Amino acid sequence: MTLTYSIADMNFRQTKSIGNLNASLQLLETLANKKYFSRLSVLSNSTIPERLTLPPDVNVTLHDSAIKNRLGRIIWDQWKAYSAARRTGNEWLFLSKGFASFLKSPPGKLIAYGMDAVHYHYKEHYPNAVPFLEQRYFEACFRATLKYSRLVVTISEFTKQEHERYARILGIKCPVVEAVGIGFRPPPREIVEKENRVLAITSRWPHKRPDLALKFLEEWQKKTAFTGQIDWVGSLPARSVFPQFPNWKRHSRLPEKEFRRLVASVKALVYFSGYEGFGMPPIEAIVAGTCPVYSDLPATREVTGGAGCPFDNQSFESFSAAMNAAFKMPAAQLEQWAAQLLARHDWNVVAEKTVAALKKADAR
């Protein structure tokens, strides 16, 4: 088989999901280094190569117009990605963001990486949270993905079910959908001393429940009089009121190495959400030796297998109990969970499942 892998529309500085960016790059590296394809071409941009380690026989072309601005992204999505893929002459085109063109037919067999179905989740639960045209644009791209893809590979069984459910709602014959998951790599062997700190991951997007994060952590701070530092990493909605506790510190975004070191040094990583396709931060925390405190959702329940300290979004008492449990979590338990999760979420297994799904979809 021959494959073109598109990551040209991904950029660390602009991405809404660093987790999705990292997953797409690491899957590409694994597929490339395992030599599954007789020819592999990559549609990239000038910000990506430094983050990748690819064999010399992989043909990489740069398409910076895809990240120049919003119009450039749209033109890339709707026309240029397919034109660039056609020039490679490869049989399959892999769309790492999972959004197909609704204005142009694919140049060959299409495979999409289905991270989630969040835009339809917004339509149902947050109809006014995203600008009207942007919401309709991504809905149309998602419909095109279901309509034109030969295969959709998803990151969890929950996400697979979401794609199949929305195909039924939209009256579209669903393509082959296979849950292949996401892998995690063991962190570098480095001794990082634990500090009396908590890391809260947040986002301005309402499905990440920034409102609940501020409410619950403010109440927890007042009731416990926590004297350590709480680091907030990520954005918050424009109208959010950030409590002025002297031990609370905000970071809009941290460089990757600095962020990873912070994850390893804190006593607990706190992750609120109302909808997830997978939920990577809790797994990343455990692998780094930190106990996660996270929203108990179908996807997070599936991928963690009960590891860490989940809590009910409807109950502050549940959140407070999870925080107390995280602070008391033995290092031996975290090490055991980390070993189990790294074995379960392995990039080599993900790559093998992806290739097996390709062959299955090709035969069908």
Describe this structure in words.
- By secondary structure, the protein is an alpha/beta fold.
- Helix content is 43%, strand content 17%.
- It has helices at residues 18-33, 70-88, 118-125, 132-148, 157-170, 210-224, 256-265, 280-287, 298-304, 316-327, 331-344, 347-363; strands at 2-6, 39-44, 59-62, 92-95, 109-114, 151-154, 176-179, 197-202, 229-234, 248-251, 268-271, 291-295, 309-311.
- Strands 3-2-1-4-5-6-7 form a 7-stranded parallel β-sheet, with helices on both faces. Strands 10-9-8-11-12-13 form a 6-stranded parallel β-sheet, with helices on both faces.
- The protein is globular and about 60 Å long.
- The two termini are 15 Å apart.
C-alpha termini separation: 15 Å
Gross CATH architecture of the largest domain: 3-Layer(aba) Sandwich
| CATH fourth-tier homologous superfamily of the largest domain | Glycogen Phosphorylase B
Question: Strand order, biggest sheet?
Answer: 3-2-1-4-5-6-7
Please describe the biggest sheet, giving its number of strands, its sense, and whether it closes into a barrel: 7 strands, parallel
Poorly predicted regions are none
Could you say what the CATH topology of the largest domain is called?
Answer: Rossmann fold
Overall pLDDT score: 93
Overall body shape: globular
Strand content: 15-25%
Radius of gyration: 21 Å
Keywords:
364 residues, alpha/beta, Rossmann fold, 2 domains, 7-stranded parallel β-sheet, 6-stranded parallel β-sheet, 13 strands, 43% helix, 17% strand
